[in-house]
């Protein structure tokens, strides 16, 4: 039960009431209530304005108004309740819902409401919450104010919300009918920015006029920085416009004044200028980087244009269009041109120029757009020196290989046919070698079972599993140096060919645990060019050396064939060792998967090979006319090969209290896989045994990935480096052969727990699930390039530390074919990256590597970051290498003020 206070004839009367409803002031005396209180009402307190004592009623004999159960007010004259009461001129056109936690006072003659204790009023789309509220019905003005506690501190600031606008203030006056408002000492948020105003006027169209304002992106009540302006105007969902403004930092005015300011608060696509950044480059001079223009061309297309210009004459231009059509496709392209000048043009020996370009293109197609058809592209192509002078991020500069792929595929629904075509490109920026394969196309038919009935009755016969397939491949490829791109040398090296393959196979389960798989295959190879190399004793290779190989190209149509028959047998063998009770290791299980196959082929490709003399001594070797063919070459000679292999898996069960099962057991993988492969050709004249391939892979403790592989050559070589048909173990050595090459790689990633990991993962999942067809998503993708270039500006302070390690060791043991000398090469490299927090606001990080063979550091990028709440400072340092840089950047975190950044950098090249 609660009390409502009514004032009659200057006497305050407390009336106990129990009610709940919707306030609907449809007449001057019509009132219903909605009060939710959890404390005994305290009545008016001394901090509220004194209530005006109402005058006595002129006619004391008039019966008082009463409130019926329907919320309608009737009087003694008997107004018909079915038609409702007559409305007064000061009535509102919609119900008002209000409540207070402490108490409500209604002064009926003055038509005035007083609400105390977390008062809340809702009218249409407007909602006001405050500690104190007063409503005068005659003027239709709602006033909301704060209160003060026993220590004199204010609390319960008014909060106003309407049409997406929200304000916090000291005092607020709102006109119900006109929707005008006068607000004092208010703070409101627009997008990423906050506006603090001493006085604010709000108009019915929701526009805002402020007096003595501050604009900032800092969310503190006392912001670290703000633009102080006497007058400001806010056009909702469009602009925040101010007159002359002065930048204040920590409340101290700075010498920076601006005549006016425009802060966009719109959502969606808008065209505008991209402000450049100032840099100093020791070789290029002073410059402006990344300045340009963003052009929004509608829902489906936009264009970003950027440029760099330097005082010594270097420049670059980049155009980045993106396109999209919802539920159909989306993509983007980058076209970059750069002209780099070093030195003085008047001194030719000290002057150099590099003209470079880079083209990237990505395209993806929605699978629902055209079922069965897919088109995608990921292109990255350019000159080898482009990265040297125009790319600065760590990941790109340490990667010497780039590649491209464009693909189109079609699957016929309900039919076994598939078609794919595309282009592939790979490029080594260090050696400047380029390989392009285009056009490539493959048509295939899924395996068909002609003897299998449509409706199988009973047990399947062995011939029911007899299957036949078909594959046709068209391939064109060329390898060249990037300096001859588009020239005749490149076209001379172009190889074209076509391969058709018809496999026939079926499987037969035998002896319960074995599978027997016979098969027959026929392949047809077609070529358009034959390449023959001949020894020319008169060819001058160098000043003091004669003799070399001449290459002769013959255009035409050439064919080669290959047929084979095979049968393979496979199974799986399980073994387990169980440890005694009480041991922490419960059991170890070993799984072996041996495979054995026998194949034979006739000699159908003899016309595709010839004897090549490769030195003046007359040594020869068999080689193919189509060695560099894009579709491969069939093997020469008869073959009756036995292929063998063994794959192993090793794991164990250990005792674990963390496991929730009754046995408290956990599986631990020791080796995910390890084994070997090889073959033996029974019909070959010599060198019947192939090399042995070894491999192993595992993941220790779910943290360390380890892979290893190698090849063992079982043959003996003479002093001149010629391979002899003799095994190493026949020479008296207890050895399977010579280790020709081997590779081992280890990698791990360690990180401290992140308290916000779940929220970040949810946000990431939302981004991944969002249809990537709007300009905002494409802009996020472009921002990834900025993250790579300046890692110090994008650190995560929520993770105290992290460390990524990658180690690789490569060994090769080759024998020179002329001298017989043994050449052993090692490459051993460690890549590491990580960061750690010196304090919760300071972060130090590094990306680098170490070359153990040359005993030197690789490309190194170090950074220090400082979280300044609404700002961030980062220092990037590249101390060693051909490209060195030092930069310091102080920038706001909010994207709307990203151009306010202060950047100073110094760049040096070793040419």
UniProtKB/TrEMBL annotation:
Domain LPS-assembly protein LptD central: 240-715
Region annotation (Disordered) ranges: 44-84
Top-rank taxon: Bacteria
Record InterPro entries: LptD, LptD_2
Extent of Basic and acidic residues compositional bias: 55-65
Protein name: LPS assembly protein LptD
Species, as recorded: Chitinophaga sancti
């Amino acid at each position: 039960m609660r009390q409502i206070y009514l004032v009659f004839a200057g006497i305050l009367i407390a009336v106990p009431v129990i009610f709940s409803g919707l306030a609907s002031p449809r007449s001057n005396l019509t009132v219903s209530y909605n009060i939710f209180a959890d404390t005994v009402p305290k009545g008016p307190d001394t901090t509220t304005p004194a209530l005006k004592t109402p005058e006595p009623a002129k006619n004391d004999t008039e019966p008082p108004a009463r409130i019926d159960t329907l919320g309608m007010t009737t009087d003694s004259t008997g107004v018909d309740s079915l038609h409702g009461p007559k409305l007064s001129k000061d009535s509102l056109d919609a119900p008002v819902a209000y409540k207070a936690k402490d108490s409500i006072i209604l002064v009926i003659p003055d038509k005035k409401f007083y609400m105390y204790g977390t008062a809340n009023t809702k009218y249409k789309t407007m909602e006001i919450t405050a500690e104190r509220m007063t409503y005068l019905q005659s003027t239709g003005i709602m006033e909301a104010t704060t209160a003060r506690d026993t220590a004199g501190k204010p609390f319960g600031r008014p909060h106003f919300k309407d049409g997406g606008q929200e304000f916090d203030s000291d005092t607020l006056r709102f006109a119900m009918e006109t929707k005008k408002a006068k607000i004092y000492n208010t703070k409101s948020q627009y997008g990423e920015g906050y506006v603090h105003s001493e006085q604010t006027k709000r108009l019915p169209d929701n526009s805002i006029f402020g007096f003595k304002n501050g604009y900032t992106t800092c969310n503190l009540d006392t912001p670290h920085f703000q633009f102080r302006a006497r007058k400001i105007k806010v056009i909702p969902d469009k602009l925040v416009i101010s007159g002359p403004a002065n930048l204040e930092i920590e409340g101290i005015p700075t010498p920076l004044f601006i005549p006016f300011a425009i802060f966009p608060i719109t959502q969606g696509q808008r065209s505008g200028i991209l402000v450049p950044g100032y840099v100093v480059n020791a070789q290029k001079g002073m410059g402006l980087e990344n300045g340009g223009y963003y052009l929004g061309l509608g829902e489906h297309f936009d264009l970003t244009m950027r440029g760099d210009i330097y005082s010594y004459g270097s420049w670059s231009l980049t155009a980045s269009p993106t396109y999209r059509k919802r539920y159909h496709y989306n993509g983007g392209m980058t076209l970059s041109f750069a002209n780099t000048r070093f030195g003085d043009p008047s001194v030719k020996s000290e002057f150099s120029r590099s003209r470079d370009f880079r083209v990237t293109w990505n395209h993806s197609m929605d699978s629902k757009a055209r079922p069965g058809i897919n088109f995608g592209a990921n292109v990255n192509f350019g000159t080898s020196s482009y990265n040297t002078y125009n790319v600065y991020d760590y990941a790109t500069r340490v990667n010497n290989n780039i590649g491209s792929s464009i693909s189109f595929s079609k699957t016929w629904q309900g039919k076994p046919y598939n078609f794919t075509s595309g282009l592939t490109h790979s490029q080594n920026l260090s050696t400047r070698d380029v390989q392009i394969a285009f056009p490539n196309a493959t048509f295939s038919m899924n395996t068909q079972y002609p003897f299998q009935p449509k409706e199988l009755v009973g047990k399947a016969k062995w011939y029911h599993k007899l299957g036949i397939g078909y594959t046709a491949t068209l391939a064109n490829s060329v390898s060249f140096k990037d300096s001859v791109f588009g020239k005749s040398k490149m076209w001379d090296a172009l190889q074209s060919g076509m391969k058709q393959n018809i496999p026939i196979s079926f499987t037969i389960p035998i002896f319960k645990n074995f599978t027997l798989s016979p098969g027959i295959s026929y392949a047809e190879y077609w070529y358009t060019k034959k390449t023959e190399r001949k020894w020319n004793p008169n060819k001058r290779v160098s000043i003091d050396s004669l003799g070399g190989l001449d290459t002769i190209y013959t255009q035409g149509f050439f064919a080669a064939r290959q047929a084979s028959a095979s049968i393979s047998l496979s199974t799986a063998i399980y073994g387990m060792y169980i440890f005694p009770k009480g041991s922490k290791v419960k059991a170890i299980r070993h799984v072996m998967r041996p495979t054995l196959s026998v194949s034979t082929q006739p000699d159908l490709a003899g016309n595709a090979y010839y004897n090549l003399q490769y030195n003046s001594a007359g040594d020869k070797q068999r080689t193919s006319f189509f060695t560099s063919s894009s579709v491969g070459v069939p093997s020469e000679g008869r073959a009756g090969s036995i292929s063998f292999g063994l794959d192993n898996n090793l794991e164990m069960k250990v005792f674990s209290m963390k496991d929730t099962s009754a046995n408290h057991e956990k599986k631990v993988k020791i080796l995910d896989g390890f084994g070997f492969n090889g073959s033996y050709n029974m019909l070959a004249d010599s060198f019947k045994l192939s090399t042995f391939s070894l491999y192993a892979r595992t993941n220790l403790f779910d943290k360390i990935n380890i892979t290893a592989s190698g090849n063992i050559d079982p043959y003996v070589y003479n002093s001149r480096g010629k391979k002899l048909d003799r095994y190493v173990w026949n020479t008296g050595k207890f050895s399977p052969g010579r280790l020709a090459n081997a590779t081992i790689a280890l990698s791990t990633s360690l990180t401290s727990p992140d308290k916000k990991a779940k929220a970040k993962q949810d946000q990431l999942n939302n981004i991944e699930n969002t249809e990537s067809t709007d300009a905002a998503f494409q802009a996020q993708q472009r921002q990834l390039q900025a993250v790579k270039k300046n890692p110090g500006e994008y650190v995560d302070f929520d993770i105290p530390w992290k460390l990524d390690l990658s180690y690789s060791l490569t060994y090769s043991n080759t024998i020179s074919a002329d001298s017989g000398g043994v050449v052993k090469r090692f490459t051993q490299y460690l890549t590491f990256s990580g960061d750690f927090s010196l304090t919760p606001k300071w972060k130090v990080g590094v990306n680098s590597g170490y070359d153990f063979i040359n005993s030197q550091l690789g490309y190194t990028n170090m950074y220090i970051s400082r979280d300044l709440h609404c700002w961030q400072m980062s220092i990037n340092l590249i101390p060693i290498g051909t490209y060195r840089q030092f930069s310091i950047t102080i920038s706001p975190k909010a994207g709307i003020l990203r151009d306010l950044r202060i950047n100073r950098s110094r760049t040096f090249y070793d040419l």
